[in-house]
Each structure stands twice: as C-alpha cells, then as structure tokens.
Design brief:
Layout lengths: L6 H11 L2 H35 L11 H36 L6 H5 L14 H32 L3 H14 L4 H13 L3 H14 L4 H13 L3 H14 L4 H13 L3 H14 L4 H13 L3 H14 L4 H13 L3 H14 L4 H13 L3 H14 L4 H51 L1
Helix pairs in contact: 2-3, 5-6, 6-7, 7-8, 7-9, 8-9, 9-10, 9-11, 10-11, 11-12, 11-13, 12-13, 13-14, 13-15, 14-15, 15-16, 15-17, 16-17, 17-18, 17-19, 18-19
C-alpha cells in the first residue's frame, strides 16, 4: 500500500467544504476592494493634475511640460497609496488561504468520536497494477536484448562475418519468432554458409508471417537455385518482382535461375535490366560473369570481375569468379591464388573450397585436391559435386597405384625369366665345356 502526498488533495477537499456564506463574503470583499482601489488611485491622480497644471509657470519649463511634471509628482505621491492597496489585497487573499489551510476546530462531540481511517485521502495502488509494472521491466529488457541480438547479427552480416552473425540471428528468432526480418536475415546468412536446406526452413517462417516481403522471396529463390531447383527459384523470384518490380536482388536471382536453365540470352538481359536500375550493382555484374562462364569466355569475365573488385575488394564471390576464369584459361596456379583470396574473406565458403580442390585436380595435385574437397564437405555435407569429384580423384589414385604395382610386377617377372634363361644357358655351356 502506497500513500500519496495529502497536502494538495486536503486543500481541494477543504475548498469544497467551504460554506456558500463564506464564499459570498469573500466575493463581496473582493468587489469592494476593487472599487476602493480604483477610487483611491484616481483621487490623487485628479488632484495632482489640477494643482500641477494650475500652478505651472514658465520657470518650470526646464523640467518639461505640465504633463511631464504631473507624471513625476504622481509617481512620487502615489507610491504610498499603491503600497496600502497592495496590503489590502494581501490581507484578503491571506484570509482566504488561511481558511483553507486551518479549518475550524471540530466540536467536542466530534473530538470524542472514534477516529476513522482517512480512506478517501489514501490512494492504494492495486496489486494487479503493481504486478504489471513489475512485469514491464523484464519485458522492456527482453525487447532490448532481442533488438540488440538482431542488430548485432545484421551488422556482422553486412561485414560478411557470417559465422559470427549466425548465433546472434538464431538468438533473435528465439526471442521473437514473429520477426520476419530476423528469419530472413538468418536465411540469408545460412545461404552464405552453404546451408541451403536450413535457409529454406528459415525463410519459409518469414513468408508465413509476411507473404508480401519481397526480399524473403528473393532469398528463397537463391536457396532453391543452389539446391538445383531452378524452376522453383524462378517462381520465387517472380513472386518478389510482382511485389517490387524494381527489386534488383530479385532480378539477380531470376537471372541466376535462367543461367542454370541454359537460357543465357534471357539471363543476360535480366542482369542488364538490374544494371540499368543500379549501374554499380555487383550482383548483376557477377551474374553476367556466370553467363560468360557458361559460354566459356574467360576473356569477357575478367574485366567484369576486376570492376567488381574495384567497387568492393572484400567481395569473396568476385575472387571466386576470377579463379573460375583462370581455370577456364588453364592457369591453375593463378586460379588457386584467387580462391585463397576468397577464403581469406570468408573462410567457411564451401564453394571456394570446392573450386580450389577442382583447380588442384586439374594441376595434377590430387593430395591437395582431396584436402580442399574434404574442407568443402565438412562445411556442406550435401555438396554432391564435391563428393563426386572426390570419388573420381580417389578412384584415379587407386588406378594409378594398381597400374604402378602391375607394371612393377611385370618388370619383375620378365627380369626373373630372363635371369633364369641366362642362368640355364651358362649352365649348359659349362656342362658342354667340361665334356
């Protein structure tokens, strides 16, 4: 139970308890005092004006006109009158205030009566309201922590620190499972970590909450592209463009799906459409690189890749495409250097590890190729391309070992036969010599 300050409430209640007679008396006194103030202030003014101007001579001209002298004398003479009037007003108001502050003493009968609790003068805060206030503090703290987790995760995502961003975004969706922005950001990070199945689960949560969120449809399209479902990716990107026709990321995802489907001309036009909206949009520039990869034209890829690197040197995808261009040029060591640059930016990039392993395989370095492919599969166990390439390299190594053993055995057998034949000839010659 909490008691509020009673002084202001007590005075209001005592004002209400004033009798009508008391209020009338104070009102009459106030009116009388107003009239007295007017009369008392006007009489000196009239008197001084007449006396001053009647006795005005040219010798007084040095002090100014008659009106100036009158104003000066009035200020000198009426100071005392003003003071008296002010005191009268003070007395009236003081009497009124004292009536409020010190109410009349109760009668002996009232004094003898048992005291009652001042229920009307005590404000009780209900337990329910108190509980609501107590609950509000942790709720605000929880909201602050939820927002903080989301903001930190998205900041790390913008810095391309996807592994570090992941736990914060997971915490954000745990604290608020109705935040479609948090679910979409989580899906985007999972895509960048090549965890596309988990990304689809996360982005589907976002779309259940807000089916009109265009970016979520684009993120879903990207995941579907990476899983090899180009038709579904194309549908998702078209859903995003139906909501936001100038969404450049949706155009990029659509162009990627068309590239994977082999519709390279349409894909190229889609990327150009995105670049007309934003000429420095690096995703669309890299999309055109993908088209040239399908056309096996590395000489067209390298200028685009270098343009992206000038815009954003920390874009790991640009370094990946640069390595792919050098792979097509059969310059495998330059390709491996480019993939290493990509992995310095994003160490958990499964695609970069796979491409690096592929370059080592082309460079006839199977041991390093298998190491790189194992790293790719540790990040993304569902990478079928990495698994198939690893199986082929392992099979080629086994065949190489088997062939080497067979050749050695053959050489050993031939040598043994030749040795036996020569020994037999020497033995026969020795016998006939003795004969």
């Amino acid at each position: 139970m909490v008691t509020l300050d009673e002084s202001s409430g007590e005075r209001l209640k005592r004002l209400k308890r004033l009798s009508r007679k008391q209020i009338v008396i104070f009102a009459v006194l106030a009116v009388c005092l107003v009239l007295v103030s007017i009369i008392v202030l006007q009489i000196p003014s009239w008197y001084l004006h007449n006396v001053t101007c009647a006795n005005y001579t040219y010798s007084d001209a040095a002090m100014g006109s008659c009106e100036n002298i009158y104003s000066y004398n009035l200020g000198q003479q009426t100071g005392l009158v003003d003071t008296i009037v002010g005191l009268l007003w003070f007395c009236l108001l003081a009497a009124f205030g004292l009536t409020l502050t010190f109410p009349p003493k109760p009668s002996p009968a009232k004094q003898a009566a048992p005291k009652q609790e001042a229920v009307s003068e005590t404000v009780v805060i209900e337990p329910k309201k108190e509980e609501q206030k107590q609950r509000a503090v942790p709720e605000l703290q929880e909201k602050s922590e939820r927002v903080d987790a989301l903001e930190r995760g998205m900041k790390l995502q913008r810095q391309r620190k996807y592994t570090e961003a992941l736990p914060f975004l997971k915490e954000a969706v745990q604290r608020d499972d109705q935040s479609y922005i948090a679910w979409t950001s989580l899906a985007s990070v999972l895509n960048n970590l090549s965890k596309h199945a988990e990304a689809l689960t996360a982005v589907d949560h976002a779309l259940q909450i807000n089916p009109q969120y265009a970016h979520a449809w684009s993120v879903k399209g990207f995941a579907l592209n990476e899983q090899g479902d180009e038709d579904a990716a194309l549908e998702a990107s078209n859903n995003a463009l139906a909501i936001e026709p100038n969404n450049t990321y949706a155009l990029y995802v659509k162009g990627m799906a068309l590239s994977y489907k082999g519709e390279l001309d349409v894909a190229f036009a889609t990327f150009d459409r995105a670049l007309r909206i934003n000429p420095t949009y690096t995703d669309a520039l890299l999309g055109k690189c993908l088209v040239f990869t399908g056309l096996e034209e590395p000489q067209e890829m390298l200028p685009l890749v270098n343009q992206v690197i000038r815009i954003d040197p920390e874009d790991a995808r640009a370094w990946r495409f640069k390595g792919m261009a050098y792979n097509l040029k059969h310059d495998y060591h330059e390709a491996i250097n480019a993939f290493d640059q990509a992995l310095q930016i994003v160490p958990d990039d499964a695609s970069a590890w796979f491409l690096k392993g592929e370059a080592y395989a082309y460079a006839q370095e199977p041991t390093k190729a298998l190491d790189a492919l194992n790293r790719a599969l540790a990040i993304n166990p569902n990478d079928t391309e990495a698994r198939e390439l690893k199986a082929r390299i392992s099979q080629m190594r086994r065949q190489a070992v088997t062939g080497a053993v067979g050749a050695f055995s053959l050489r050993l057998g031939v040598g043994l036969v030749e040795g036996l034949a020569k020994g037999f000839v020497i033995f026969v010659k020795a016998i006939f010599k003795d004969l």
